Structure formats: C-alpha cells, structure tokens
Amino acid sequence: MNSIFVEHISKSYGKVQALKDVSFEVKPNEIFGLIGPDGSGKSTMFRILTTLLIPDEGQAHVEGLDTIKDYKAIRNMVGYMPGHFSLYQDLTVEENMKFFAALFHTTVEANYHLIENIYKFLAPFKGRRAGKLSGGMKQKLALCCALIHKPKVLFLDEPTTGVDPVSRNEFWDILDELKKEGITILVSTPYMDEASRCQRIGLIKDGKILQIDTPQHIVEQYGSLLFRVRSNNMHQLLQDVRSYRSTKACFPFGEYHHVTFDSNDCDIAAFHQYLKDKGHYNLEIEAIEADIEDCYLKLT
Description:
This protein has helices at 42-49, 71-77, 93-103, 112-122, 135-147, 165-179, 215-220, 234-243, 268-277, 292-299, and strands at 4-13, 16-26, 31-35, 57-62, 65-66, 78-81, 153-157, 184-189, 200-205, 208-213, 226-230, 247-253, 256-261, 284-288. It is an alpha/beta fold.
C-alpha cells in the first residue's frame, strides 16, 4: 500500500483552477518532492492531503484513509509544516513544543529521539519567544512541533523558502535522518537544486504534473546538447542568441544563458562567429550537463 495516493484531483478557486487532474503516489518511507514555482498548486495539494481542503474532483488517500471520510484519523497520524510560520509567536520555544505535544496527548520526552538532532540547535534559545527567532530557527522549531507526536507521514510545504543556504543544507540532512526512522516525507520546494535530495520528484506547473521520476532519470532524459554562453553584454546576448537560425531555446541562468539548438551537430564555430559579428566580446561558449532546472524549463 502506498503511503499517499492521489487520483485525478482537481481544485478551483472561483475561475482560477489551482489543480488540474493531478495523480501521483508516494511509497512508504520515501522522500517525494513536488517541485515547481510559486502558484503552481503545491500548497493546494498539501491542504487537500492534510484534510484542510476538499477537492472538486478526484480522491486522495493517506495511509489508506480517505482524506474526506477519515479526516480525523488522518490528522492524528500526520505532521504538517505549512509554508508560513504558524506557531504561537508569543510562546517560547519550549512552550510551543509542550503545547503541541499536549494536543496529541503525548510529551516532548516520549518522542525526543525524533527531534534530538534538531533540538540541539534550538536548546540555547529554548526560553526565547518564537517570534524573535531567526528564519532558520523558526523552521527547526516548526519541524520539531510537526514531529512531536511521531507522525507516519510528514508534509513539508516549502520548508526552506527564505532560509539561508547553510540552514537549507542542515534541514535536508535532518530529513535524511528522519527517513531512517520510517517516516514518509512529502516536501514541496521552488528550489530546483533541492530536487536531487529527493528519491522521486513530481514537476508541477500551473496545477498540472509535467513528469514524475527520479531526479537522475529526468536529467538523463533531457536528450539535447546544452551549452552555456556569456559575453560582455548579457541582455543583448539573450536577444541575439534567440535570433540565431539554429537556436531551439535560450534562457537566462545565473551568470550565463543556457542554449539548445535544433540539431545536436550545430556548428559552434559558426555560432561563435555570428556572436562576434553582433559585437560581442569576452565570449564563453561551453558544453555542459543539464540539471533539473534545465529539464523543467524544457518541459514548460
């Protein structure tokens, strides 16, 4: 039995369709990522799976339980960390943890082994009010409170948004440890680089699933030679590359533009000369390996 089973889910807010015939499944003890930009439907999917929203069409099950009929049982067996910090900001770190433990008729000590590696970062601030914590510390406190009752499934909706890179890496290391405890994890993120930390991912755009597979298989299926280019005038370079006769696609990508051509045997020397004739200098043209973000851009 899958830990999460979603079949033909659709959901609209008035005229805006947030989810369009979405289907996927998450295996027991798996870290599954929903990867997509803001507004792609990730949070709506999480609210349906945590019984906070009812879908317009389709059905969803968590640990074999229907999200509509069995909502009370599901709420007792899952942990949910929403996209915004939703703990009591006037309570201290310690008070928040004790409060959420009491809600589930347990204690912090009973499941302390689950949060021990996280709480070591929070311990020096246990008497500080939650609203006064840094972004990374708020994130760790929210995760502690979501784990305090030893959930079977953990839902993390964009848990690393707005958090510094060091805290992001620490957070994913923590998730790897939680997986060893037998907890199934569904996590959403707009950061494409985090996809590689998941066992499988679903790429989502405008409420529709584009592809589901392991990050490695998705990259292997890219199927085109990819180049990165840079020059003295990056804005004009984007326009000139897109105007080149053999260009298939070109997108800004950090300090470079990533470009693919209609044919994998494109004459790079001719392409280089074309850009020189357009007035570009300090040119860099280099073949590179695609990553998840390149695959996502190709699919969209």
